[in-house]
Structure prediction request, 146 residues.
Amino acid sequence: MSTNQTANYQLNQWTPEDPVLREEFNTDNQKIDEALVKKFGLDFPAVQSGTYVGQYTGGNAVQITIDVGFRPSLVIVLTDAVEGRTNDYHALLGLPSTQLLLYGEYTDLLSDAIIFKNNGFTVNCCPTYQDGFNVSGVSYHYLAFR
Prediction:
């Protein structure tokens, strides 16, 4: 049985005199798995069921590509209002041929805001609309459906 644990996730830390137990390794692996899912949204059973939920942080690039492991039929990208901007973007809903951009009290129909790929999608970041869905430091959440 381990004598010590790490500060953040309480993973086992053994001293040379500690007996090593398989259960401790299993517990550590479970904690690591849960932390990765929480941090990166990597819910692999969801990918198999046809729904993928994830997050990215904006970086002001014209495009950002997201790999979800399948070609989606519908993508939804959500964000909170961006402080200090007018017409803040709130949601982007996309089918392969048409996307609906919802921002503030306005809506727009677009055709190239989301580019559907075999293993995911690219957010074209709506260059016509200031920074679109890739404002540096802003957190975006997405749902992709098979």
